[in-house]
Design the sequence.
């Protein structure tokens, strides 16, 4: 999916006059169009813009650090922080996993995942009101930049997915925390299949908090930057957003009962059996989709979401850091990236190739301590913090 796309210079003000209170005071990076992350300070508000449109705004280690640094700098001085992106194709198509797998550098993987997960945790507990404009493709790392914040604004161009099982990984960036908290077993279904939700369905699923037509984002941003209280922010968002039940029926509405029944099974193998017993066209299509995924990744994901549903965000991210580093050391991750993103032959050679061959002891190792004991820690924790 990493292909060149047209760069949109910025959101138009639609000819509207900007009130003096929201005239933009540019920060040092706002005038540097080459920076991968642009930041602006608008009085007591901050705006962060992902600026890597040719890579669908996929985030690399440098971008994660820039976002984290800006957010920490504004943590005690801003009331609202808006996160958006350049271009109309993608908010953020994910993390730059090619850089990690092509070098086979476990240390690079450690640095990327630990920094990214600390950013996810910061978003989840951020004091300023955090608002993400998830306009366009929002997958993987882009989900982590948005779902833990207070407000997520979807548009008709939004395409949400957590497709990690297709590349031999698992739905990380706190996926183990937010997916189990969606309605019924919808989160597990999305995490195992990588099913893509689009437009209003992202709102109806509970992934987005609001739905706004993309043509209205500029006016929405302008009014958010002019707010003076949290209540006013809520009022502005409600005024611009459609009601959750507006428009066509949720794309998965007719399958929710089947999803809940089949994906409530205690193991991935049992989920397959339930789908086979169901026998409907939907169940058969779901089985075809699941057969393409890494068997190991699916088993890891099912356990991750089962555990994560009982954890707070930071504890879940610690668990996911263990999983991520173990995957960087030895898993289907590199092979999945090769097959889908590098060679693009769409023919990953999973090891093992079937669910029946997945070793439960190996699955437990993924969740176990890291070889050198170097666990994920957050700033406020002491050196002996552990999962």
Sequence:
């Amino acid at each position: 999916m990493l292909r060149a796309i047209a760069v949109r210079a910025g959101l138009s003000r639609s000819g509207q006059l900007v009130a003096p209170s929201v005239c933009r005071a540019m920060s040092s990076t706002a005038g540097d169009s080459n920076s991968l992350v642009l930041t602006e300070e608008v009085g007591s508000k901050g705006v962060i813009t992902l600026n890597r449109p040719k890579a669908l705004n996929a985030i690399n280690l440098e971008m994660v650090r820039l976002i984290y640094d800006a957010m920490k700098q504004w943590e005690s001085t801003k009331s609202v922080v808006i996160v958006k992106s350049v271009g109309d194709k993608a908010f953020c198509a994910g993390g730059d996993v090619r850089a990690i797998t092509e070098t086979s550098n476990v240390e690079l993987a450690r640095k990327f995942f630990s920094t990214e997960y600390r950013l996810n945790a910061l978003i989840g507990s951020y004091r300023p009101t955090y608002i993400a404009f998830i306009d366009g493709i929002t997958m993987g790392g882009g989900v982590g930049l948005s779902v833990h914040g207070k407000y997520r604004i979807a548009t008709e161009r939004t395409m949400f997915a957590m497709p990690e099982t297709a590349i031999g990984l698992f739905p990380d960036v706190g996926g183990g925390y937010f997916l189990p908290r969606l309605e019924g077993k919808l989160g597990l279904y999305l995490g195992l299949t990588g099913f893509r939700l689009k437009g209003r369905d992202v709102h109806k699923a509970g992934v987005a908090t609001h739905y706004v037509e993309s043509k209205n984002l500029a006016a929405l941003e302008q009014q958010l930057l002019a707010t003076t209280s949290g209540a006013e922010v809520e009022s502005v968002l409600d005024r611009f957003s459609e009601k959750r039940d507006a428009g066509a029926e949720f794309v998965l509405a007719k399958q929710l009962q089947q999803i809940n029944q089949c994906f409530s099974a205690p193991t991935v193998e049992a989920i397959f059996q339930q789908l086979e017993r169901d026998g409907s066209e939907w169940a058969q299509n779901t089985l075809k989709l699941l057969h393409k995924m890494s068997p190991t990744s699916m088993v890891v994901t099912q356990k991750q979401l089962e555990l994560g549903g009982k954890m707070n965000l930071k504890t879940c991210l610690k668990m996911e850091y263990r999983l991520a580093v173990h995957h960087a050391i030895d898993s289907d991750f590199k092979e999945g990236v090769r097959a889908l993103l590098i060679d693009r032959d769409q023919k990953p050679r999973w090891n093992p190739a079937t669910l029946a061959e997945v070793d439960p002891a190996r699955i437990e190792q993924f969740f176990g301590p890291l070889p050198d004991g170097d666990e994920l820690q957050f700033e406020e924790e002491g050196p002996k913090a552990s999962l």
